[in-house]
Structures are given as C-alpha cells and as structure tokens.
Write a structure and sequence with these properties.
Helix content: 25-40%
Distance between the termini: 125 Å
Order of helices and strands: HEEEEEEEHEHEEEHH
Number of strands: 11
Structural class: alpha+beta
Strand content: 15-25%
Number of helices: 5
Largest sheet: 6 strands, antiparallel
Length: 276
C-alpha cells in the first residue's frame, strides 16, 4: 500500500511538472507573437519602408499611401507587363510590333491592350488614332516585340514624342524599347536596347517603376439617363472608344435603324425566277 502511494505521488509530480512547462512555453510564444504584430496600422497590411502588394508603408504613420508598381519587358521573343507582381499582359514572337497597354490610374486595372505591326505600312497611323482616343490621365505602357520601326513614320514618332518619349525619334531597326507615361501628363520612365547591326536585335530591356495611384478622375457631366449610366460604367472599365466616351458630344450607345412599313415592302418590285 505504501509503495502504491509513493508511485501515485511520483506520477502526480511528473504531471504537474509537464503542465508547468507547457504553460511557460505558451506564455513565451504569446509574448513573441504580440511583439511581432504590426504597430500603427493594426490590420496586418502595414509595411515599413518597402513596397508590398501595391502598398507602401510610411515608417510608422497610420495612413497608407497606394502605389502602382509595374514591370514592362521588351525583347525579340516576348513582351510582358506585370502589375503589382502579377502578369497582366503577355505576347509571344508571332505578334511583332509596338504593344500598348492602358491602365486605370486609380486602381491599376487594364483597360485596353493593342498591338500595332509597325513593320508594315499604315499600322503607325492606326496607332496614332488609337492614342488620340485615350482619355487623359491613363497610364500607358509601350514595348516593342521583335521589330517595330521599319514603317514607323514621322507622324507616329511625333505622337510618341508628344507623350514624353525622348527615344522615339531615334528608334531604329530591331531596337528593343520600353516606355511608361501618363496620357496628358509627365513621362515616367523609358529605356532602349540598341541593335548593333542589321543582322542582330537589341538586347532585352525591362523597366521597374513605382508610381502613386491618382484619384483625380475626369467625370463627364452627362445627363442621368439609363443610357448614360451604362456609358459611365463602360467608359470606367474600357479605353480606346474615344467618341463613345467623349464628355461634350458622345456617340449614342445604340444605333436606331429606320422603320420599314409593310406598305413600302409590298410596293417594292421583286423578281422571281423559276428553273426551266
């Protein structure tokens, strides 16, 4: 009986020691996790001095500023555009020419993407028409895939220069080129990989840029009608439809065809041919 009581006391003592160690470990872990929590923001999104997921911390300030980080790549084999480290656009070597990606300046969403094969005639004028249809304030990303200058005329080069490009006027055969700018605003960044001779291509070039999101969007004062509410929704998501989204005199969303009366149909002459 005495031996059994001693065993019971030993086992009970060991259990108490184990429970005490577990409690101490729990308290230490809780203290470490508490110190690791972000201070100031309280929502787990606060970062200090570095860009992460499109947001940048202000070194302890409560307010978070929103930024747009982009990566634009140009080479003989491919063109890519990354927005907040996610690939938003890509094209392979079968889509030669100048690639343009239009981004919403308030949220970074892609609103349009076009390819202009400026190796062949007249594509450069189509590119100018497209650029003229873009609303001011949009973020424009340009990149050449393979070749994009053989038929790039003076008018197109002047349009690119008006957008802030310092390289467009001297782009030549098989140069690789990347350019980020704000339509109606200031250029952001630009780079070029020059081809050393007519037999080779320029080296791949890639831009990494970070710019603040803008919330100063132009809001057209259209009458509040069902058609204009549809127009506003469409124009906030897509670009390149100029006259449809024009503030002063937009094109109608629907095309009304003239009605043909039954009387006019019955009086229309017709010919019926029967086989012999």
């Amino acid at each position: 009986m005495l031996l059994s009581r001693r065993r019971w006391m030993v086992v009970t003592g060991l259990l108490l020691v184990v429970m005490l160690c577990l409690n101490i470990a729990f308290l230490v872990d809780l203290s470490i996790n508490h110190r690791a929590l972000p201070r100031g923001g309280g929502d787990g999104e606060h970062v200090t001095g570095r860009v992460e997921g499109g947001r940048i911390g202000d070194g302890g300030e409560h307010a978070l500023r929103q930024f747009l980080n982009l990566k634009v790549h140009s080479s003989k084999e491919k063109v890519t555009v990354h927005v907040r480290e996610q690939q938003a656009y890509s094209a392979a070597s079968d889509r030669r020419g100048i690639h343009i990606v239009v981004l919403n300046q308030a949220n970074g969403n892609m609103m349009a993407a076009r390819t202009f094969d400026t190796y062949i005639p007249n594509s450069d004028e189509a590119m100018v028409t497209f650029l003229n249809s873009i609303s001011d304030g949009r973020v424009l990303c340009f990149a050449i895939l393979d070749e994009g200058t053989f038929s790039l005329g003076d008018n197109a080069r002047s349009a690119l220069k008006a957008l802030g490009s310092r390289i467009a006027s001297t782009l030549s055969w098989r140069d690789m080129w990347v350019f980020v700018t704000i339509k109606g605003g200031e250029p952001v960044a630009e780079d070029v990989g020059k081809a050393v001779d007519v037999q080779s291509w320029g080296l791949p070039v890639e831009l990494h840029v970070t710019l603040p999101l803008s919330h100063s969007l132009v809001d057209c004062d259209w009458p509040d009608t069902p058609e204009n509410r549809r127009r506003k929704t469409f124009c906030s998501k897509y670009e390149g439809y100029g006259a449809l989204c024009h503030c002063a005199n937009p094109l109608p969303l629907t095309i009304k065809s003239p009605k043909v009366s039954y009387h006019s149909r019955s009086s229309t002459p017709s010919t019926v041919m029967f086989p012999c």
